[in-house]
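By convention, each integer encodes one residue's backbone shape. The lines below illustrate.
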Amino acid sequence: MKRIIVVLSFLVCLVLSGCADSEPVYESIDIEDIKQGSSGDAVFISITKNGIAADASEVVINNFRPGARAEMTYRIHNGTAAAIRPEIYLVDADVTNYSKADGAVKAPVNVTDWLVIPALDDVTPGEIKEYIIGIAIPKDIKNLPEKFGFQIQVAGNTGGTVQTAIGTWWLVNMR
């Protein structure tokens, strides 16, 4: 009977503390280790009736490792007369074709499981909305390439019509 009470007490403690089904904890990467184009703190994307433009072509993450998480803010400006719903997604692009790849190889297939892309909502005309895009590699992942890359694209969806997307390369340098 004492053993049952001890086990039940332990299970209650786990449930109350959130340990029973909690998300993995990732170590944050220093902001100095994450860089991109012009401003360094965000990728600015402007969507207009004439197309889509970005102020950066790449995000570079240095000193990354399994068990860590890196994030970049995407600021999306709606320069159209109608509400848009941005679409942010990973594309199957080969980083070796990128002129600044500097020895990076194509990201492992399971990079799709590591990306953190939030739920997206409408951006009203003239509004700028921020979305945090992240990569979080589980601690138990082994045999990663020393340097790999992938491309995140952003498109504007206006009234069911998706504009041409613009891509940002993510180059990941492992520790």
